[in-house]
Amino acid sequence: MQQQPILRNQKLVAALPSVVLSDASRAEIARRAYLSYLDDGSQPGREEQHWLEAEARLHAEIIHGGHHHSA
Questions:
Q1: How many independent structural domains does the chain possess?
Q2: Sign of torsion, CA 55 56 62 65?
Q3: Residue 29 forms part of a structural domain
Q4: DSSP 8-state code for residue 27
Q5: What is the extent of the structural domain holding 63?
Q6: pLDDT per position in the chain (71 positions), as tens?
């Protein structure tokens, strides 16, 4: 399947159709997004940004063969 570009947060990124998130991956993204929210002062309104950043970091680790670390 050819990767199609998508626009997220004004940045062009490649869609990752070959990466299927497991429930554990979704839980890890949620955990990271929540920690980012706390680090950001628990201010509302950036939930999507925190989620997308956490998702992108986890995807990068999966693609590059890294292991995600619990904080």
A1: 1
A2: negative
A3: yes
A4: H
A5: 24-37+46-71
A6: 444 444 443 333 444 444 566 888 889 999 999 999 999 999 999 999 999 999 999 988 888 876 555 54
